[in-house]
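Reviewer comment 2.1 asked that we show a complete input and output for one of the modelled complexes. We chose the nicotinamide-adenine-dinucleotide case, as it is the one discussed in the main text.
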Amino acid sequence: MRLTVIGTGYVGAVHAACMADIGHEVLGVDIDAERIAALTSGRPPFYEPGLSEMLVKAVTTGRLSFSTSLAEAASFADTHFICVGTPQHPTTGAADLSHVEAAVNGLAPYLHDSGYERILVVGKSTVPVGTADRLAGRLHAAAPRAELAWNPEFLREGCAVQDTLRPERLVVGARSEQAEARLREIYAPLLDGGTPFIGTDPATAELVKLASNSFLATKISFINAMAEICDVTGADVLTLAEAMGQDSRIGPRFLAPGLGFGGSCLPKDIRAFTARAEELGRGESVAFLRQVDEINTRQRSRTVDLARQLVGGSFADRNIAVLGAAFKPRSDDVRDSPALAVADAVRRRGAQVRVHDPEAVDNARAAYPALQFALDVAKACEQADVVLHLTEWPQYQELDPVALAAVVRTPAMVDARNTLDPAAWCSAGWTLRALGRPRLG
Ligand code: NAD
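Response of the prediction step:
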């Protein structure tokens, strides 16, 4: 089948490459000409495991091409996926829908003039509940043969390719059987592989995404709230989380205490959901999400406090090494990165901060030009008074605590992700601290 993907960021570029990989002919469209030029030559504009190889293959075979033209998109195919960003509005916290509206409004006149019988526009961006129905009316008025459906995206950066080819579920909100049938046909290879398909109305589809992200954020903040209780009672949050996670009704995933969540989704999605619920007169139904957000943000200042204790009460003239800049491992995305928020807070308090990350240094430098960066861990840790482990890249678990102790000024570590082995680090002479874990060496 032929289809277009409008917006080729983390979601769109992966979706376009994966749709080509399962056999479709795909045109990726973006307003960013530089991004389109990179993708056309098979270069992903960001780091995502497995994407580069898939992109090169799809571009070389001719199944995937790129353009900046919506007119070309309208004549290329009769199905168009919208994957543009929905960032947080800077003052209200609501979702900024201007990119989605620009994409749909920009495409509509060309759809009207295209020769296709039935046109399907499919939103994948995360939007406030009610957006699809509102935009559908406008789209239909401008292009009567066009219909709008919503198919929210659940991929995780760092395993986006795998999540797209083997999703845990596909959710489609559509107002007609034909629209749902077309999406079933597009996703047939995934459905044949056993992926569950949930067909519903657009409002429910939009809500599945918001409710899922709210639930995940709540689970993370719940265990971080427990870490705060552990800190004042001498209990150990890691053992608590392990024991709670054994309960099959609770489960261990997303019950990882530490520095909390960041990135381009969870923080903005819970704020946008809160703003939308208030607009609908149901603010009290999700009022707890404000606390989820507050608990999450508090872990950043608690991590700064832990570091301050380790350097004797003041950051002035202290050297701080930071391990990790990306908001999560296996990604170079630094949007709302908890690691960089902590690094910058420490810098603003007078410390010399040197940050290492295996993939995200370029993005981090662009976002935080006042921070210093190092291309290897030893360089970042040279003469450090404390090392802050803030993003749990697997390679940090492989570090040799004995070798690193010889590089730093004081062997002191905050393990804000709880993935370092306390026994190994403490026996190499390190003072190790973590939120909610008072008994570490
Ligand atoms: P992104 O910022 O990485 O990419 C958005 C892309 O859209 C950019 O390349 C931008 O140039 C392009 N764009 C903006 N306006 C355009 C227009 N009018 N026409 C064509 N292109 C346009 O965003 P993302 O991380 O890929 O997220 C996209 C959406 O998917 C958001 O709603 C996000 O909440 C949601 N989502 C993201 C993830 C994730 O992990 N990143 C996961 C699930 C859902």
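Residues 70 and 107 are 6 Å apart (CA to CA). We note this here for comparison with the apo prediction described in Section 3.2.
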